[in-house]
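Reviewers of the previous submission asked for a worked example of the structure-prediction workflow described in the proposal, so we include one complete record here. The input consisted solely of the amino acid sequence. No template or homolog information was supplied to the procedure at any stage.
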Amino acid sequence: MEPLDGNAAAGMLSEVFAMEMTAARGRCATCGNEAAVGEAVVYMHAPGVVARCRTCGAVLFVLTRGRDRHWLGVRGLAWLELGG
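From that input alone, the workflow returned the following structure tokens.
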């Protein structure tokens, strides 16, 4: 599976969030690296989108979609800054 940068997840993220999410900044809960979502390493062909920290490789978030809903797990983010 070929990893992409976080910008590849923009389409699916826009289905959930009204704002541009690739510019949102977050902190990896594992190593403390702070970066924009667009800088994450993203795997699009997993069951949904899997975003990993570019520094340590820890999973930042997982976004999957069903017929009429989405599931978002953000356990790997210490925080996520929206807007600004």
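The longest strand covers residues 59-65. We consider this example representative of the routine output the project will generate in years two and three.
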